[in-house]
Amino acid sequence: MKEVHPLNKFNYCPMCGSKHFVVNNFKSKHCEDCGFVFYMNPCAATAAFIINSKGELLVVRRGKEPAKGTLDLPGGFIDNGETAEEGMTREVKEETALDVIECKYLFSMPNIYPYAGIDVHTLDMLFECKVNNEAEARADDDAAELMWIPIEKINPEEFGLASIRKAVEIFSLRK
Q1: Is the separation of the CB atoms in 114 and 97 below 8 Å?
Q2: pLDDT tens digits along 86-110
Q3: For the chain, which residues score pLDDT lower than 50?
Q4: Phi-psi region of 17 (alpha: psi -120 to 50; beta: other; left: phi over 0)
Q5: Angle at CA 95, nearest 5°, toward 153 and 6?
Q6: pTM > 0.90
Q7: d(CA 167, CA 159)
């Protein structure tokens, strides 16, 4: 599949409406009329590694595209005004009903998230999270199902998003 840069979808300057909105460089467009430069930087997203008291990893089955039906980690996009930790905590609550009590940053992965015909470049921040109510876990929001899987039985190829697949490989090697 050919990557479509998100800037290719924008033909008019968002400031003045001019059609003279041209490529400035690989991450921006420039308006030849008003001088405005629009930058397309990665969107911030999070994903959680949550291990229960039995040493199993919490995974969800994606209920929506992209990669609907494949495995994923709980997580999602950070909202405006949130820290990465706040976004991570909110996303875990929305998808699993679990309350994060500790959130430790591990590493990040670049990703391309196809959405509505645009390849959205993201920076996925991976966290190891502790929860205090693991027995109350249930799939909600855009998670169709959730399950606890022993880490040694995790197959990264079952994860549909490239960044999450790679992150699971890295995490599994650390455990």
Answers
A1: no
A2: 999 999 999 999 999 999 999 999 9
A3: 1
A4: left
A5: 95
A6: no
A7: 10
* Residue 23 amino acid letter: V
DSSP conformation letters of the chain:
-----GGGG--S-TTT--S-EEEEETTEEEETTT--EEE-PPEEEEEEEEB-TTSEEEEEEE-SSSSTTSEE-SEEEPPTT--HHHHHHHHHHHHH-PPEEEEEEEEEEEEEEEETTEEEEEEEEEEEEEES-GGG----TTEEEEEEEEGGG--GGGB-SHHHHHHHHHHHHH-
- Return the structure tokens found at 69: 């039906």
Q: Say if CB 100 and CB 149 are below 8 A apart.
A: no
CB 147 within 8 A of CB 52: no
Contact 85, 130 (CB under 8 A): no
Instruction: Say if CB 11 and CB 3 are below 8 A apart.
Output: no
Contact yes or no for 60/94 (Cβ under 8 A):
no
Digit-coded pLDDT (tens) for 9-18 = 899 999 999 9
Whole-angstrom Cα Rg for the chain: 19
